[in-house]
Amino acid sequence: xxxxxxxxxxxxxxxxxxxxxxxxxxxxxxxxxxxxxxxxxxxxxxxxxxxxxxxxxxxxxxxxxxxxxxxxxxxxxxxxxxxxxxxxxxxxxxxxxxxxxxxxxxxxxxxxxxxxxxxxxxxxxxxxxxxxxxxxxxxxxxxxxxxxxxxxxxxxxxxxxxxxxx
Length: 166
Hints:
Elements: H1 6-17, H2 37-53, E1 59-64, E2 69-74, H3 82-96, H4 100-106, E3 129-133, E4 139-146, H5 150-162
Helix pairs in contact: 2-5
C-alpha cells in the first residue's frame, strides 16, 4: 500500500471534512452586478405577459453579465429552431452591450462591423436581443426572444427589460 505523507493527509482532511480555521470565509461565488434568479424570473414574467398579449409563442432566454444562460422559457407551440436563436440573441446583446437591432445595422455591407456575425461561434444580428440595465445603470445581463417577427421579438424583449430598471 502506498504511504501518504502527513501533508497529504492534512490536505485531504481539509478538503473532505471542511476543516478550516474559524476565521476562514467561503468565497463569494456570484459577482457583484450580476443578474439574480429573482430578477430573471421577474423579467421572464413580464416578457411572457407581453408575448401572451400579442399572441406570439416564443422562446425567451436570459443571460448573466458573463453571457451565460441564467433562465429560459419556451412557450407551447414556439419554434424549436428559435431556442438557439433566442439564446444567441441574448448573448450577442451582452457581448456587445447593445441591442441586436443596433448591431445588425452596424454590420451591413459597407458598415464598420460587416461580417461580425461569424465571430464568437455565431452571433444573431437582427432584432430581439436587448441588454438588461438595472436601476443603477449597470448592465447585469441580456434578454433574447425568438419566435415571432423581429419586431414582435424585440417588443417582447423590451417589455421584459423594462421591469428591471424600475
